[in-house]
Amino acid sequence: MLQLPYLVLTLAAVALSPVGAAVTCKCLPGDPCFPSQGTISAFEKNLAHPLINPRPVAAVCFPQDPSFNAAACDAVKKNWNNGVFRASLPNTYQFTSWESIINTTTIEQCDPFGNVNDPADVCFQGRVPWGVVNVTKVSDIQNTLLFASKHNLKLVVKNTGHETLGRSAGQGSIMLWTHNLQDIDFSDNFVPKGAPHGTQGASTVTIGAGVNWAQVYDAVAVRDKVIVGGIGAGGTVGAGGGWPMGGGHSILSPFYGLGVDNIVEETVVLPNGNFVTANKYTNPDLFWALRGGGGPSFGILTSVTYLTHPSEPVTAAFLVSHTTSDEGRLALFNEWVKAHPALLDAGWAGFWPYKDNQFFLTLMALGNPPTNPKANSTLQTFYDTISQIPGVVIDLEVTKPYTGFQQWYDENFIDSQKGIGFNYTVGDFSGVPLAAASVLIPRSNFENNTEALAKALTALDDARPFLIGGGAVSKPDPDEMAVNPAFRVMLSDLTIALSWNSTTATPQDILAVRKNVTRLADGVRAVATDAGAYINEAEIFEPNFQKSYWGDNYPRLRDFKRKLDPKDLLIVHQGVNSEGWDDEVICKTV
Ligand SMILES: Cc1cc2nc3c(=O)[nH]c(=O)nc-3n(C[C@H](O)[C@H](O)[C@H](O)COP(=O)(O)OP(=O)(O)OC[C@H]3O[C@@H](n4cnc5c(N)ncnc54)[C@H](O)[C@@H]3O)c2cc1C
Ligand SMILES: *[C@@H]1O[C@H](CO)[C@@H](O)[C@H](O)[C@H]1NC(C)=O
Ligand SMILES: *[C@@H]1O[C@H](CO)[C@@H](O)[C@H](O)[C@H]1NC(C)=O
Ligand SMILES: *[C@@H]1O[C@H](CO)[C@@H](O)[C@H](O)[C@H]1NC(C)=O
Ligand SMILES: *[C@@H]1O[C@H](CO)[C@@H](O)[C@H](O)[C@H]1NC(C)=O
Ligand SMILES: *[C@@H]1O[C@H](CO)[C@@H](O)[C@H](O)[C@H]1NC(C)=O
Ligand SMILES: *[C@@H]1O[C@H](CO)[C@@H](O)[C@H](O)[C@H]1NC(C)=O
Ligand SMILES: *[C@@H]1O[C@H](CO)[C@@H](O)[C@H](O)[C@H]1NC(C)=O
User: Fold this and answer.
1) Among 63, 153, 303, 319, which lies 20 to 30 A Cα-Cα from 451?
2) Domain around 259
3) Is position 195 within any domain?
4) Could you say which ligand is closest to the alpha carbon of residue 396?
């Protein structure tokens, strides 16, 4: 990184790179352009809470670190893999790799499990920000945006820290931490701002940007409603941050649409500090971009208003099976791929994790018995077919009625004792490094490319696909909002995740794992022609990310982004208009 002629009071330090292209860089701690302590203190006075200057959470484990504290270290180690703990703090992430700087030559991390007594083993700040704004007011966001803009600072936004691309962390950054925006308000008659007189009100819940799905589900269930939301162990995924900005899928999506299809209004602070409302009638272009354009590119969300739906009983179906031969495994996947369209059309949605020779189903249909008259026979036909395949062993097959989504969710994702089949309460990793990828596999591949797709899927040892497309997801016009048009034609979202051992891995080992994820996803992409990828579960080497995440919507999104954020304040790696920026979004070559 070259930062030659530094110019006081300009918004960007401009230098010439060896090849002659102009380079502009954000201003990091230690750079001459970085604001003085006095300037930072003056800024801090306008915030509702003092600025937090965090060290990585494991700094307390390093005897040479000023914050060393053996008891605090024990607590950190005990909670290391606890997703709730990690989601509650500004300086921790679900995946430890995002707290570290990892490139082809260097690992700068703060690993409490290494040899902390070795003077060479220090706790690096990594991608943990130097300053955290504990946001409780809109003015905190406005002041921070203006301050970061004036001093050309690197700015990140963190809600829960679940993103697989880790863009809620950043080397040398100041952070807007939205976790404490905790309002939840219901309406039976919500009318968007600016709607024509006489517009019919809707049943909605409006949540602050820091509320998570567990909180929303509990609040909604009390009112006998359901909502389309993220499904993860403990419910720690945020309901008002990256999830709605990237699309948001749910086991309920085939019935009620994607998360973005259920948003009726949002409030947002724009890069220029203006606090605005976006809906179908007020700022419709912004509303278009916010629904899928990806966080935080189009502003800082402060609230989201979602539709709620009347709760109804559901029927869940669980399968645990294993195969005793490669032929059996391939035949099982063939039948599963073939059954995909009919099962979705018959009203089933769900998950189909598989690992080594095991294959699981966790499916859900509305109604008890299922409202769709074909649900039972379609699934039964699939079970009967696979039970005839030599080498396929069915270990468990249960169909169970639940009073509603909430009971199903609590028993399978919150209570570790009541789940059936795949154990989701331990299935979601936290406190480990991660390399992930997603492939949104179109319906056409399930229908017309069955054998090749089945073969590509069996090449993976371990995957976590979501059967969450078709139905209501396929209905909206792909132009209606920015969300990836690939969602409208997909049936399953295949996610792949690999990890490594932070204590022992070298930069080359990590690169190998990351490339492995790309190689594995490429194997599926090679047969799933026209597949897109879900930005919220994406990989760092996603090829042609603009097309993968936004398809034909990209040019419109980029034009809008350039107008909205001319100073590139809210740029993230692989985000809209990130072309030319390095992977850490510190320097741009133009
Ligand atoms: C265990 C687990 C389960 C998951 N389950 C699902 C699922 O069922 N369905 C699904 O669709 N996805 C799921 N995901 C993926 C999830 O959608 C993404 O991880 C998402 O980015 C999380 O958003 P967040 O706000 O919680 O996390 P963060 O990492 O805090 O934020 C994610 C992104 O949004 C930005 N951002 C955060 N808050 C704001 C804000 N207020 N304004 C503007 N930008 C903001 C951040 O800068 C970052 O780029 C899951 C992920 C995990 C790890
Ligand atoms: C890797 O990161 C270190 C620490 O930030 C940096 O000094 C080095 O230049 C980086 N190397 C590469 C190849 O990017
Ligand atoms: C952030 O603000 C909240 C809400 O006022 C407060 O309860 C909390 O203690 C603050 N957190 C930190 C780490 O300062
Ligand atoms: C279909 O219904 C029958 C009769 O109620 C039941 O025994 C069977 O388990 C159901 N099949 C599935 C796959 O749910
Ligand atoms: C899920 O795994 C946890 C941790 O191993 C275990 O305590 C729990 O009993 C398991 N749940 C079920 C239903 O088997
Ligand atoms: C699959 O192929 C058939 C026959 O060519 C065609 O009618 C159908 O539309 C294809 N399905 C999809 C989803 O493209
Ligand atoms: C990483 O490797 C070390 C050394 O082999 C081992 O002690 C440790 O348990 C491993 N950690 C994990 C999380 O697997
Ligand atoms: C790459 O992935 C394959 C298949 O999952 C696995 O067997 C192998 O160990 C992985 N290698 C690395 C370096 O991650």
Assistant:
1) 319
2) 184-310
3) yes
4) 4
